[in-house]
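Dear support,

We are seeing what looks like truncated structure output for some complexes. This example has three components. We would appreciate it if you could run it in full and send us the complete token output so we can diff it against ours.
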Amino acid sequence: MSEQGNLLAIEGLAVRYGAIEAVRNASLEVREGEIVTLLGANGAGKSSILNAVMGLVPVAEGRVVFEGQDVAGQPPERIVRRGMTLCPEGRHVFSNLTIAENLKIGAASRRDKSEAAATQADMLALFPILDERRDQLAGTLSGGEQQMLAIARAMMSQPKIVLLDEPSLGLAPQIVDTIFELIVRLRDRGATILLVEQNVDLALEIADRGYVLATGDIVLSGPAADLRGSGDVERAYMGSH
Amino acid sequence: MRIPGYLKATAAALLLAGTSMSTAVQADDHEIKIGYAGGFTGYLAPYDQPSLKGVQLAVDQLNAAGGILGMQIELIVKDTRTDTAQSAVAAQELVDEGVVAMIVSCDVDPAVASGVIAQAAEIPAASSCASTPTLPDAVGPYMFSNYTADNLQAAVLASYAREQGYENAYILLSRDTPYTEKLPEYFAEAFQAMGGNLVAVGEYATGQQDFSAEVTKIKGLDPQPDVIQTAAYEPDFPAFIKQLRAAGIDTPVLGSDGIDSPTTFGLGDVAEGVVFSNAGFASPGSPLEAYEVAYEAKYGEPNDTVFTATGYDLMMVIAAAIEAAGSTDGPAIRDAWDNLENVEVATGLITYKDQNRVPVRVVALNMVSGGERVHVGDYSPDPSMIPAP
Amino acid sequence: MEIFVQQFINALALGGTYALLALGLAMVFSVLGLINFAHGELMTITGYAMFFAIAAGIPFPIAVILGIAAATLAAILMERIAFRPVRDANTATMLLTSFAVSTILHMLFQNLISARPKAIPVPDWMIGAINLGGLSIGVIQVMSITATTLLLLALTVFLRRSILGIAMRAASLDFPVTRLMGINANAVIATAFGISGLLAGVAGVLWLAQRGSVDPLMGFLPVLKAFIAVVLGGLGSLPGAVLGGFVLAFIEVSLRAFLPDDWLPFRESITLTLVIILLLVRPEGLLGRKDAVR
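Here is the complete output from our reference environment:
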């Protein structure tokens, strides 16, 4: 049973790739308006959780309750249309499309095209660099710019919740700061965010609450302020909880 | 009562074994087995399927008239799927089932594959419609041809061309099959032997469809040809003649039996005046006309290709050879077959005597006129004018 | 000079047909990673639809439309019945499925219709030629060039302007992420098959107008040419497929037109050798992406 007020509740989720169990028994909740961060070492199963939630990989066990309904096993396009989206690890912008086309396809799930155009104007205002290069192919953008585009594209579907997978991956430190500022701004504008990160300090700085995943299990959770600097996270990473 | 599945299977197997045993016993006394290993699926299906229909019609008529040597004919048909290896397997199966003569595929490669098996078993065999004159010698003394040989057709076309006063010829050939390559070459050889001049040789690939490059070349020839000869057939012939006529070239075109098909008569203006050779013309009162009637009665649709008639012819030749041999012994049938003279078949008369197993038979010339077939004449060329294979 | 212009037009007309076929193959490949070897049978279906329509007394232009519609519908059904159940299987399974579809259709045509070719009478006006100076351009050639140009323009507009079109281009790069945009995977794949069927139908009409008959196996050779064109242009690249079709036609026509007579028997091998050399220089194809080589 999900608690009242949870936008997304993952309950007892397991993900398997053949004989390999990537996620064993993960449960977490995200309430409306929160930034929740999911931390863990490389290979802990963070991306597997996000991909399973979105229907990109099969859910072996457990439930994915979004707005009170179990969406586990639904195809990604249906989940997006319900209002949950994923900004995938490694950005995955469509390098063969222009920036404007990337944004346009981001709004594919929306019926009202004039509202979609308004969102696009909004995003271009938020990311002036994208506006300048709107007719350029996305493949010509730098890594940081591609990350901005990936986030803007995800926002084009006007999601109730965005799953952000490793937005800082492979970016220079100043750019990472810019991206994190943007994430806070998006939350301030009403978005709910589930953030998967390896950069623990930065993630806990902007998050309301956090979970720590180690070898497929949630081993630690709590308000970000409690997790920050307590040393528990570090110990959980090392697997000595 | 419920019968367990395995019991049903056993009962069915016993039943099957029982029937096949009884036919085997019966066959020794009252049946004579003829085998047909043909490509009834795959790329030979357009030739072997019609041949089979003709063969079946002949078997019906022969059986109704009392069979061969007083025995009913049992036709055993094996599909080779137009696969050369499978052609050998099917031939072996036919040998094992005790056929006394074998019909093999319409194309040289599978025909040879089946033929060598029949040869080894000393069972006479013939291809239903392969027209390459070197086929029997490629296999051995038990292999016969049946269909009008390429060099025979080519000789008839060449003498017709010279009769018409054509001096300069262009030939269009494809090296993809012996038929499309050799027939125009035989034509050129005979045409030159009769005093004509070969202007140029064009080449195409079977199925290429686009003849624009070749047509543009013909347009630039000097001297311009008076006649164009080709053994191209569907889909190449229609594509070629359309593009030739579209380019404004109205040179007469001589084709071969490959274009004896409804498509040619549906081509409209472009095919007007095309002359082609084939195995026979169903003129009023001819045996071929009677054949066409019997065909329509059996199959409920008019015959649309001469390959059914030549299949019928071959079955009649086999029957004549066995009757002449007076036995079902392979070597006896072979010798009798090799000495057959003027066997009456649907398309006319067939003679094997002194022909080295490549028969002499009539060649008909036809003209396409107003979407109909018009008989130009029947030809039996002087053997000296036929190019050596 | 005149002969060069004439052969150029010849190559352009042939290239158009190759391009339409190759584009259809590439369209399906780009969303599914499948080379559909049953693509040629869509042309055959166009042929039989036209044959039966004309036999039923339907006027030629309407028979053409029915033929194209039949190929489009058949392509969509092919995806729904044969390919959707194995969509998540590996590429080899899908490839084998396409061979199976092709073989089954051959059998059905041979045994339910006829192993012999069926004539498709083409109106006489389509067989003529337009003479411009010393040039002679066949009506079918004009139709081929016109149809190719119009279809390529329409397809470009569709792929650039519509959401589904943009989604198809996106899917050619990254299908899972395209689904994350809320794009329905079935819709994208069905559309790709539908368009490939439409293109095969139009190419089929042009092909049939030249050959004048339909037979069960007629689709094999064109699909082989289209496959060469797709590989030449770069697997997964739609403009590449079109370019590949034209380049292949230019190589073929030039060799047939200008090769010395003694060399003519080797023209097909020379064509393939040239294609292989081009691929050695550019392994990813003429317009392929380096990262697209899978």
